[in-house]
Structure formats: C-alpha cells, structure tokens
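Hey, quick one: can you model this chain's 3D structure?
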Amino acid sequence: QVQLVESGGGLVQAGGSLRLSCVASGRTFINYGMGWFRQAPGKEREFVAAIDWASVTRYADSVKGRFTISRDNAPNTVYLQMNSLKPEDTAVYYCAANRMVHTSNHAWDYWGQGTQVTVSS
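Sure thing. Here's the predicted structure for all 121 residues.
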C-alpha cells in the first residue's frame, strides 16, 4: 500500500525557516515526480513546488527564491526547505506523487495527510 507521510510542520515567526520532509513507501518512486501543495482555510489546494524523476524543479511564483524542493531516492524522500516565511504561507502542506509533474492538484495519484505550517506576524 502506497503511503506518503509528511513531517516538519510547526509554528514559526515571519522571516523564519522550516524544512518539510515526505517519506514515500509501498512502491518505488524513483521514476515518479514528487510535489508539494498547500491549502489555507477557505481556499483551494494550490501548487507550491515539484521535482521530476530527473530532479528538474518547478515553483509557484509566490515561493520562488524562498522555497527549495529536493529529493533523495534512497530512501524515497522529498524535502521542502522554506525560508523567509510569510504569514500568507500559513496552510496545511501536502506531499504528492505522480508519474508526471503537474501544477494542477487534480492530476496527482498519491497524497499524504498533510502537515500544518503556521507563520505568525
């Protein structure tokens, strides 16, 4: 059974940093794209960052220059380093996996349960 488990969320002041991790299990993800999405209260889930099997990355404009996505295929882990955090980054952050990288959340096959990130002003 495929599982994606996120960790690393928490409460941080504006300008601070957090590093999210997502461990994937249940199959090999070496040929899969991995992504991060987020959902704030009352808003739709939105794309944050993704990395494909060749480690080519994509970012939402709102996080470019502040967030960095990376992956370690042994053992099936993807990271999201978040720097210069802003209150508007507050959301539940979800890890996702799919063969192809998409910015649409409807196109991803596997999802984690999410981890809360709260940025105070």
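One thing worth noting: The first strand starts at residue 3 and ends at 7.
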